[in-house]
Amino acid sequence: MHRWIQEALSEVPPESDIIQWTEALTGLEVGATVTKDEKEHLRAIEDLYTDSEPALADQAAEMDVLSLNEFPPKAVLFMACFRELQAEYAGKANLNPHKLRVIKDRKYSVK
Questions:
Q1: Residue-by-residue pLDDT tens, the chain, 111 positions
Q2: How far, in Å, CA of 84 to CA of 8, rounded?
Q3: 80-84 long-range CB contacts below 8 Å, 24 or more apart?
Q4: How far is CA 56 from each of CA 29, 52, 87, 92, rounded to the nearest angstrom?
Q5: What does the alpha-carbon distance between residue 12 and residue 57 come to, in Å, rounded to a whole number?
Q6: Which domain of life is it from (predicted)?
Q7: How many domains does the chain have?
Q8: What pTM, to 2 d.p., does this model score?
Q9: How far is CA 106 from CA 3, 25, 35, 37, in A?
Q10: Domain range for residue 7?
Protein backbone atom coordinates (compact mmCIF):
# COMPACT_ATOMS: atom_id res chain seq x y z
CA MET A 1 0.00 0.00 0.00
CA HIS A 2 1.30 3.39 -0.97
CA ARG A 3 1.90 5.92 1.81
CA TRP A 4 0.17 8.65 -0.20
CA ILE A 5 -3.08 6.64 -0.18
CA GLN A 6 -2.94 6.29 3.61
CA GLU A 7 -2.30 10.02 3.96
CA ALA A 8 -5.05 11.04 1.51
CA LEU A 9 -7.92 8.88 2.79
CA SER A 10 -9.60 9.22 6.19
CA GLU A 11 -9.35 5.43 6.40
CA VAL A 12 -8.18 2.74 4.03
CA PRO A 13 -11.11 0.39 3.40
CA PRO A 14 -10.52 -3.33 3.86
CA GLU A 15 -10.03 -5.54 0.82
CA SER A 16 -13.54 -7.01 1.16
CA ASP A 17 -15.13 -3.54 0.93
CA ILE A 18 -13.09 -2.59 -2.13
CA ILE A 19 -14.15 -5.81 -3.87
CA GLN A 20 -17.84 -5.23 -3.05
CA TRP A 21 -17.63 -1.57 -4.06
CA THR A 22 -15.99 -2.48 -7.36
CA GLU A 23 -18.85 -4.86 -8.10
CA ALA A 24 -21.40 -2.15 -7.22
CA LEU A 25 -19.67 0.22 -9.67
CA THR A 26 -19.89 -2.27 -12.54
CA GLY A 27 -22.34 -0.92 -15.10
CA LEU A 28 -23.14 2.20 -13.04
CA GLU A 29 -24.35 5.08 -15.20
CA VAL A 30 -26.81 7.96 -14.98
CA GLY A 31 -30.29 6.58 -14.39
CA ALA A 32 -29.11 3.09 -13.45
CA THR A 33 -31.26 1.06 -11.07
CA VAL A 34 -29.27 -0.47 -8.22
CA THR A 35 -30.17 -2.92 -5.47
CA LYS A 36 -30.41 -1.80 -1.84
CA ASP A 37 -27.06 -3.47 -1.15
CA GLU A 38 -25.45 -1.69 -4.10
CA LYS A 39 -26.91 1.60 -2.87
CA GLU A 40 -25.25 1.02 0.51
CA HIS A 41 -21.92 0.38 -1.23
CA LEU A 42 -22.27 3.55 -3.33
CA ARG A 43 -23.12 5.57 -0.23
CA ALA A 44 -20.05 4.12 1.51
CA ILE A 45 -17.87 5.33 -1.38
CA GLU A 46 -19.54 8.75 -1.15
CA ASP A 47 -18.96 8.83 2.62
CA LEU A 48 -15.30 7.88 2.20
CA TYR A 49 -14.86 10.75 -0.24
CA THR A 50 -16.65 13.23 2.03
CA ASP A 51 -14.79 12.13 5.16
CA SER A 52 -11.47 12.30 3.29
CA GLU A 53 -11.96 15.72 1.64
CA PRO A 54 -9.71 17.74 4.02
CA ALA A 55 -6.85 15.23 3.80
CA LEU A 56 -7.37 14.82 0.04
CA ALA A 57 -7.16 18.59 -0.46
CA ASP A 58 -3.95 18.84 1.58
CA GLN A 59 -2.33 15.85 -0.12
CA ALA A 60 -3.40 17.00 -3.60
CA ALA A 61 -1.81 20.41 -2.99
CA GLU A 62 1.39 18.78 -1.72
CA MET A 63 1.53 16.49 -4.78
CA ASP A 64 0.59 19.25 -7.28
CA VAL A 65 -2.42 17.28 -8.51
CA LEU A 66 -4.28 19.13 -11.25
CA SER A 67 -8.01 19.37 -11.81
CA LEU A 68 -9.70 17.21 -14.45
CA ASN A 69 -12.65 18.79 -16.24
CA GLU A 70 -15.08 19.76 -13.47
CA PHE A 71 -13.26 17.70 -10.83
CA PRO A 72 -10.99 19.55 -8.40
CA PRO A 73 -7.59 18.10 -7.47
CA LYS A 74 -8.99 16.44 -4.32
CA ALA A 75 -11.50 14.45 -6.41
CA VAL A 76 -8.80 13.49 -8.92
CA LEU A 77 -6.60 12.24 -6.09
CA PHE A 78 -9.54 10.31 -4.61
CA MET A 79 -10.09 8.55 -7.93
CA ALA A 80 -6.38 7.73 -8.15
CA CYS A 81 -6.33 6.30 -4.61
CA PHE A 82 -9.52 4.34 -5.16
CA ARG A 83 -8.39 2.93 -8.51
CA GLU A 84 -5.05 1.90 -7.01
CA LEU A 85 -6.87 0.02 -4.23
CA GLN A 86 -9.21 -1.54 -6.79
CA ALA A 87 -6.30 -2.72 -8.93
CA GLU A 88 -4.60 -4.21 -5.87
CA TYR A 89 -7.63 -5.87 -4.26
CA ALA A 90 -10.27 -6.38 -6.96
CA GLY A 91 -8.09 -6.95 -10.01
CA LYS A 92 -9.75 -4.14 -11.95
CA ALA A 93 -10.17 -0.41 -11.57
CA ASN A 94 -13.59 0.85 -12.63
CA LEU A 95 -14.13 4.12 -10.78
CA ASN A 96 -13.99 6.93 -13.32
CA PRO A 97 -15.13 10.57 -13.43
CA HIS A 98 -18.54 9.66 -14.84
CA LYS A 99 -19.24 7.12 -12.08
CA LEU A 100 -17.99 9.48 -9.37
CA ARG A 101 -20.41 12.14 -10.66
CA VAL A 102 -23.29 9.60 -10.62
CA ILE A 103 -22.42 8.73 -7.01
CA LYS A 104 -21.97 12.30 -5.79
CA ASP A 105 -25.15 13.54 -7.51
CA ARG A 106 -27.06 10.33 -6.66
CA LYS A 107 -28.20 9.98 -10.26
CA TYR A 108 -29.38 6.41 -9.79
CA SER A 109 -32.55 4.78 -8.49
CA VAL A 110 -32.99 1.88 -6.11
CA LYS A 111 -35.06 -1.26 -6.76
A1: 689 999 999 999 999 999 999 999 999 999 999 999 999 999 999 999 999 999 999 999 999 999 999 999 999 999 999 999 999 999 999 999 999 999 999 999 999
A2: 12
A3: 81/4, 81/5, 81/8, 81/9, 82/45, 84/2, 84/5
A4: 25, 6, 20, 23
A5: 17
A6: Archaea
A7: 1
A8: 0.95
A9: 30, 13, 14, 15
A10: 3-110
3-state SS record for the chain = CCHHHHHHCCCCCCHHHHHHHHHHHCCCCCCCEECHHHHHHHHHHHHHHHHHHHHHHHHHHHCCCCCECCECHHHHHHHHHHHHHHHHHCCCCCCCHHHHHHHHHCCCEEC
Closest CA relative to residue 102, chosen from 12, 23, 15, 39: 39
